[in-house]
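Whether sequence alone determines local backbone shape is best considered at the level of individual chains. In the encoding step, the backbone of a single protein was reduced to a row of integers, each denoting a local shape. For completeness, the protein is quoted in full, as a sequence line and a line of structure tokens.
***
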Amino acid sequence: MNELNILLRIVTKSVNVRQALPIDQGRSSKENSFIDNLKSGKYSSDQDAAKDIYGKGSNDVRYKMLKHRLKKKLYNSLLFVDYNKLGSKKYYQREHECMTLLHQASILKREYELDLVISLANKVIAIAEEFDLTNHLVSALELKTSCYSENGNIKMFDSSLKALEQQVQIRNNEHRAVSMFQKVKVYLKKSITTRKNMLSEVPGIVSELESLWWNTKSFNTFDAYYKTAILYYELEGEFNKIVEMTTSTLKWVEEGVVNKLLFDANYNKFILVYAHLRSKRYIDGLKYAESYSNDIKYSSVNWFSFMENYFLLSLHSRQYELSDILLQKVFSNPSYKVISNPAKERWSLYQAYYKIVSSLSETQTALFKNPYSLSLPEYSKDKLGFNVAIIILQFIYFLQKADSEALLYRIESLKKYILTHLKDTFSLRSKTFLKLLILTVTEDFDAEVCRKKGQKMYQKLMETPTPGDAYAEIEIVPYEHLWEHILSILDKQAN
């Protein structure tokens, strides 16, 4: 049943099902009914469908035949899918065109219509060269070489064979490059031990991929090199190298070294802005974010992801007026209601932190309605990556309310959380900051004492770099800024 639903969803996006499916008139009522009910979501199982259509169970032979016929017709209709209606990139449309032409050429070759085969192969070659479709280019050259061998055209045979051998070498290098990238990707998704073992090999892999790219100048080898390098630099926290990689790529695309028809420019824009955020190059990052903000489709999920980095850049650079504008844009976007719940929770956290630090907020004394007032140290798994952010949010919430009893209650939980969850070196910034929070309570909320006794930890915080993305929890507002804000709260409460 799931297979039918998937096929029907894809086919109905781009073709008229009644026109695309050659429904036998003698069976039209049941096939039409089956299609309509599948589209409306009436059936949750084969049992439901069989019972509705034939009054029998799903093992009924008539239902099995009906399902088989419809499935076969749906698969056949995939050959006629309109990629424009699917919203696919031009690359996929042209790739499909190549496959269709190659299929036609193969049929004609069996009929020994060699001139027609060569003509179709030339069309494939023109498309394949424009879009770096090396596999299809090889297939087309194989057809041409075979045809010239058959008709005895030595000059064209030699030319085609030479081109074929060159493209086969490029294809082999592409396969090697893609396999190397896939291996890095899958191993780095495994356990921390597996990931750490793999990381030691990645620099050599990145270097080899770069050589493969410069030797072949094909897009697939570049793409493998580009994605592997960014993945590695991100895990190692070398965000300046990501900035260098993405800005260099912009230049290569502009110069035609990288095929702009295939390159995912929006992803490069996203990762470029993200890398500026993580490398603390806020001014340049904001310039890029502003420049690219209209390039991402406003109604897409990607727009909200892009805006997260844009918003965090504004917070980290203390441009709170811009933060306010960006929040308004996000929450007024009609597509906000369809983004995932974890994404909505992140935006709720971002808004809460904005209200903490911004002088523009109208809720300075009452702060805000805390949506994360959970008992420590219990946190839902879907907030993994934001546990420390939620802890800090809770702490400042009670601090601003001057609720010393609630803060005293949380001291032991904070200590336990540090010992249990912040043992690794990549948690050093979070560990240090939580110790500063504990200090405010143990020193009875005395701003001057906290400032003096916390200076050493604060200096350590400033000297500790942010770790790589794979390990770090996100600092929605830099801990240095939050410590300054906490001291200002204590100063105000003392007066």
Observations:
- The chain has 25 helices and no strands.
- The longest helix spans residues 154-187.
- The CA atoms of residues 366 and 490 lie 15 Å apart.
- Residues 362-384 have pLDDT under 50 and may be disordered.
